[in-house]
Specification:
123 residues; mainly alpha; 2 strands; 62% helix
């Protein structure tokens, strides 16, 4: 608290991204392996975009949080409610961006749709 206001002085978010991607259970014939490698690389690149979106959200959370102030909150009760609401907005925006990205990627002519079809159809 500072003069009756509550001020968030620091925020140190910790983020660990783990990508779990499918792997073939058994060795594949050369042609199938080549198609799989292409599909897997495209899928990994797709997931990295989702990861970058999350990193961006965390940076926005940190920028919003440090120095966040609520006047007339000496017990720092109001700040939790207000900060939680604003962080929820950032989270929802990230989730929507992720859904929008997937809609394009998996939609007609989208990159992931093309990768799946190329793998399945042997292209």
């Amino acid at each position: 608290p500072e003069g009756g206001a509550c001020v968030l002085k620091t925020a140190r978010p910790k983020l660990t991204l783990t990508y779990t991607l499918p792997k073939p259970a058994t060795p594949m014939p050369a042609g199938l392996q080549k198609r799989w490698d292409s599909f897997a690389a495209g899928l990994a690149a797709h997931e990295k975009v989702h990861g970058a979106q999350i990193v961006d959200m965390v940076q926005k959370i940190e920028a919003l949080s440090v120095g966040f102030t609520i006047a007339d909150d000496p017990g720092c009760k109001k700040i939790r409610t207000e900060l939680t609401a604003r962080l929820a907005e950032l989270s929802q925006a990230q989730r929507q961006a992720s859904r929008d990205f997937d809609r394009v990627e998996f939609g007609p002519g989208g990159n992931l749709q093309r990768l799946v079809l190329a793998f399945v159809n042997g292209e």
